[in-house]
Amino acid sequence: MSIRNSVMGLTLVAGVLWGGGAHAQYYGNDDRGYGGVIECKSSGYSYAQCPVPWRDARVARQLSDTQCRRGQNWGFDRRGFVWVDRGCAAQFVDASGGGGGGYYPGNGGPTPPPWRPDPGWNQRFSVRCESTDGQNRFCQVDVGNGGRVYLERQDSRSPCIDGQTWGWNRAGVWVTQGCRGVFTIDRRW
Q1: pTM of this structure
Q2: What is the pLDDT of residues 108-127, one digit of tens each?
Q3: Are 96 and 78 in contact (CB under 8 A)?
Q4: d(C-alpha 139, C-alpha 3), whole Å
Q5: Which residues pair with 123 in a beta bridge?
Q6: Element at 129 (helix H, strand E)
């Protein structure tokens, strides 16, 4: 077993534990010689994350009846996770330029154009996210590739400390240990 496969296996185990119900399966190279296929499923229409060893991902084969649409019910965050939600289930492959050569494995055709948001997508808005009873909570909102999140107002007695009791990724804001607040989403593509 190679070091890469060992690391990938450990990463998948960690991702399944963090993703709260994520179904992830690593297939190694597919029959066309691509650098691996990751299967990621949203079980029960819930949010899930699956770790990948790439800088970007694309859908190679859709497995669900629900249409998987980038930026709506699946995406890629800057920490190296594919996220799925609302029933999207698919096999994902590297989209960062390695192995694809312009060939889309899902249907044998050309690589589809990258998803781009509509004009007006880049905007600033606020969302409330609350950890009740000290539980972990993830508040989903697409922050975008170049977006940022700021704590606008703390509404809890428990402290909201960036990186400890709250944080964010491209898919949204997480809170824990009783942190409740209003967060400014500075969404940028």
Answers
A1: 0.43
A2: 445 555 666 677 778 889 99
A3: no
A4: 35
A5: 187
A6: strand 123-130
